[in-house]
Amino acid sequence: MTAILPPGFEDLLPFIDWARPTELERNSRRWSASLEESQAFYDTMLGRGPDALEYLGQFALADIAGADRTLLDMCLALAECSATIEMYGEPRPKYVFPIARFVPTHDAWALAGTGARA
User: Fold this and answer.
1) Taking a C-beta distance cutoff of 8 angstroms, is the pair 18, 41 a contact?
2) Distance, CA of 90 to CA of 107 (rounded, Å)
3) Among 5, 18, 21, 81, which is disulfide-ready with 113 (CB 3.0 to 4.6 Å)?
4) In the chain, where the domains are located
């Protein structure tokens, strides 16, 4: 059986749904989460983020794949989720563009979500 997360990060499995491969998908997840879900993910990842980044730091970005990529996507989701917790205080802020209108151009690149460069 293939591991979903690298060894030592099994405690993050309840938040696996936050691991999305593109910025648009991560932001969509942030907008669809309740404030309570966002806060739980934020608190957990804020505590585990340093360990995750230290672990991922041993790899070249282009070489991160599989369970390691899932962990990276969770770290990237923390960056998206932090706006909800630290700035807006709500998952769907009233004074910003709806996430469906925000389409990062780099998400359309052939290598988007792979960590590789063209």
Assistant:
1) yes
2) 25
3) 21
4) 14-108
Q: Say how far apart CA 118 and CA 103 lie, in whole Å.
A: 20
Q: Are 110 and 117 in contact (CB under 8 A)?
A: no
- Express each pLDDT in 4-57 by its tens digit: 999 999 999 999 999 998 888 888 888 888 889 999 999 999 999 999 999 999
pLDDT tens-place string over residues 72-98 = 999 999 988 887 777 665 666 666 656
What 8-state DSSP symbol labels residue 29? H
Q: Quick one: tokens of 39?
A: 């806060």
Spatial distance between the Cα atoms of 91 and 102, rounded to a whole number of angstroms: 15
Give the angle 109-98-112 at the CA atoms, nearest 5°. 15
Amino acid 31 reads W
Q: What is the reported pTM?
A: 0.77
Please tell me the distance from the alpha carbon of residue 91 to that of residue 35, in angstroms, as a whole number: 6
Q: 75 with 53: CB under 8 angstroms? A: yes
